[in-house]
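Next up, a specimen:

>
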Amino acid sequence: MYWTLELASKLEDAPWPASRDELIDYAFRSGAPQAVIENLQDIEDEGEIYESIEDIWSEYPTKEDFFFNEDEY
């Protein structure tokens, strides 16, 4: 399983919180690339509810990771 920003961005509008099966269903319905669906299927299903993409891909960058100071503009 591998994630990239492009793949993870396909789940930004997913109906969070969601289970693995709900995310797979969303990926199918939204036309996400096959790699997104495969990544979701690779997650072991323990009935866990995911609150955001960070729960699936812990290295998903946040706003703070970009070092952009919004106050300057």
Notes: The mean pLDDT is 87.
